[in-house]
């Protein structure tokens, strides 16, 4: 089993520049945003973040609300109407390179869509690594130039080579995911959740957290997982790994022609469904106009139903 599945800092760097498809007709400028009210957010009480002097703050980019410097994790339920509820639950993990969270298009919107389909959805607002306190400094940090470090070749001449990515510690994020799962188990009766049908879906860095939880958690027994436009490298699959639904676009910088994670799941003999879309870029959430990736959510819900995760509703039909 892979015990130290970590996300390279390179992911965060790429997300800085390509967090949204640049062709989308929206403004990529970073704007200040007053923190929205989150009346249904439940504190997970997993602790804070070391060496984090800044308070949680929000900004808007590409038309979506983003949060950064999160030091207190929360879980926000989006429950379906009782006549639609099927008993299954989905933990939703937004992305943002573990430096911010795209809580709009990769969190709340996805959870609302799942609830409309009868699934109890829970947006995980997990702790993040620190970013500069002021928005101006954060913007400058986001837009800073990345130049390769010069190294000497065998002839003694200077050459520019890419800087090796540092590994990112995800212990806080894993603890938050485990606390979210435990809370859903504890309040399953109240929320109408079948504890044997709790899954997790994540986007970009959230897909990385979904995979990290699957490969490393000792307490989470996920029924299914949905890493959406996450890393595609091979992994060592645990014997009790859940079925996987995986989505990425061919023009996503994280794809790079890799099928490692799909091959790993397939060779382990665990059910896997993979959708490689012609286009969509990165960070498309539920979808962007005129992209083939726009129908992925419908395929995901169909996959859940066919595999029996929506069985209570299906039994009523």
TrEMBL record:
Taxonomic path: Bacteria, Pseudomonadati, Bacteroidota, Flavobacteriia, Flavobacteriales
Pfam families named among the record's database cross-references: DLH (PF01738)
Keyword Glycosyltransferase assigned: no
Top-level taxon in the UniProt lineage: Bacteria
GO molecular function, one term: hydrolase activity
Biological source species: Maribacter flavus
Name of protein: Alpha/beta hydrolase
Region listing for Disordered, in residue ranges: 142-167
Positions of the Dienelactone hydrolase domain: 108-285
